[in-house]
Design goal:
The protein is of the alpha+beta class. The protein contains one helix and six strands, in the order E-E-E-E-E-E-H. 20% of the residues lie in helices and 39% in strands. Strands 3, 4, 5 and 6 form a four-stranded antiparallel sheet that branches. The radius of gyration is 18 Å and the shape is flat.
Length: 88
């Protein structure tokens, strides 16, 4: 297994877009008539498109996702070393 692969629930996940089932963003975020958020998605399997759809989020679920993404992004920022700090 390479560093771009891992196993989840018995299924190998990979960064290779032509392998396995992939769900990717497919356009800009939209607002529904009911005021919810709709994220367009495309589903492929082994590089072949299976279909498109939208992930519908309420305000609360969108806020939860925003908070989780913010935490994950903050955790992924490498710490600065003394050499990288500005001296101004």
């Amino acid at each position: 297994m390479t560093t771009t692969q891992r196993t989840c629930r018995g299924v190998t996940l990979t960064a290779n877009p032509s392998q396995g089932v992939r769900i990717v963003r497919d356009g800009s975020l939209e607002t529904t008539n009911a005021g919810r958020f709709a994220l367009p998605l495309s589903v492929t399997q082994n590089g072949t498109e299976l279909g498109v759809g939208r992930l519908i989020l309420t305000f609360d679920t969108a806020a939860e996702l925003h908070a989780e993404l913010g935490r994950m992004l903050a955790e992924s920022i490498p710490p600065t070393t003394p050499d990288e700090r500005s001296e101004t």
